[in-house]
DNA sequence: GCAAAATTTGCAACATTATAACATTTGCAC
DNA sequence: GTGCAAATGTTATAATGTTGCAAATTTTGC
């Protein structure tokens, strides 16, 4: 898996999408999980941009496709994709974003720009290790970490209004 | 502000509540903010336990009080309490919990037991500093951090089923 | 005190996000 | 091709959160 583009900066986004889909196919094959057309399509929609997409946004896009979908269709696809580490749910936004570290075991940390909405996923080993240390200090067995940072991305600090 | 009780362990919870209410009164006075009866009552309800309470749970309790409340009443009170640093919203649970560090500027980190639902709020300076470092490394200006750890508290690791 | 202004609350409707329950179809093993 | 498990379709509903405006209360300026 090669270096990732920075979401905040213009880039060849089609490459992001094809990479993500290729990774997904490989990972599902490994897991013996079925990346059905709906699931793949939902993943593709999530990867339309580096902005988190709500379940009902996905639903809307599916409808534009001519697909007669209802909420459970979307939520089931999203559950599947989450199970297989292909998308993350951003709890503070009730929205979903493609995982940029699919296949790597990781604890995601998300930098969410409040101006342009783009999200950068990081793995910050030092953060993870301090979190574990803090939890362990209380005798707590950490299983799942939600770490979401809202703020301003470099681009929006300089000049506002990108999307 | 004295040492805090550990939510996972039995303790004199009335003391938590009165401490929280006393702190709240002091803080609101400082801020020239009005801790009206409704707001105080909502804070008290939130502090019923160390388990996060949903907005509609609060609403239900208000109704049991005989108070004829609608959702906006609760959400407005919760907003006020959040503004003044008296409660936190747990994004991963859509629920609210009393702040155990009211008055101190802090970035909360929450240890959420999936078995007993109790939540411990920590301030972990090393975590905060690593988070800032990681964000800064990307040129990101962090404004607001959501850090929620789900897992098992010490008590529930030993024997399950507490509440 | 008293009227004007600002804040808070009441209230009705509605918007958004997510799930439950059950029927139907599809893919796969044998 | 029969039978089973997984995936999808469909309808309804639950859970969470917001908007907009009117009424009541509190504060402020005088």
UniProtKB/TrEMBL annotation, chains A, B:
This is Ferric uptake regulation protein. It is found in: Cytoplasm. Its cofactor is Zn(2+). Belongs to the Fur family. Its main location: cytoplasm. Zn(2+) binds at residues 113, 116, 153, 156. InterPro entries: FUR, Fur_C, WH-like_DNA-bd_sf, WH_DNA-bd_sf. It comes from Marinobacter guineae. Keywords: Cytoplasm, DNA-binding, Iron, Metal-binding, Repressor, Transcription, Transcription regulation, Zinc. GO terms for cellular component: cytosol. One of its GO terms (molecular function) is DNA-binding transcription factor activity. Binds 1 zinc ion per subunit. Homodimer. GO terms for biological process: negative regulation of DNA-templated transcription; regulation of secondary metabolite biosynthetic process. It comes from the Bacteria.
């Amino acid at each position: 898996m090669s270096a990732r583009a920075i979401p905040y900066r213009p880039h060849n986004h089609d490459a992001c999408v094809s990479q993500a889909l290729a990774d997904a196919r490989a990972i599902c094959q490994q897991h013996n999980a079925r990346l059905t057309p709906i699931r793949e399509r939902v993943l593709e929609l999530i990867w339309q941009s580096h902005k988190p997409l709500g379940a009902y946004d996905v639903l809307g896009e599916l409808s534009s496709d001519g697909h007669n979908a209802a909420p459970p269709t979307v939520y089931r696809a999203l559950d599947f994709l989450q199970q297989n580490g292909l998308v993350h749910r951003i709890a503070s936004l009730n929205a979903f974003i493609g995982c940029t570290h699919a296949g790597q075991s990781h604890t995601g940390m998300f930098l969410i720009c409040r101006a342009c909405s783009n999200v950068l996923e990081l793995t910050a080993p030092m953060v993870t290790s301090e979190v574990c240390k803090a939890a362990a200090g209380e005798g707590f067995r950490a299983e799942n970490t939600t770490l979401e940072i809202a703020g301003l991305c470099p681009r929006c600090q300089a000049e506002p209004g990108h999307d």
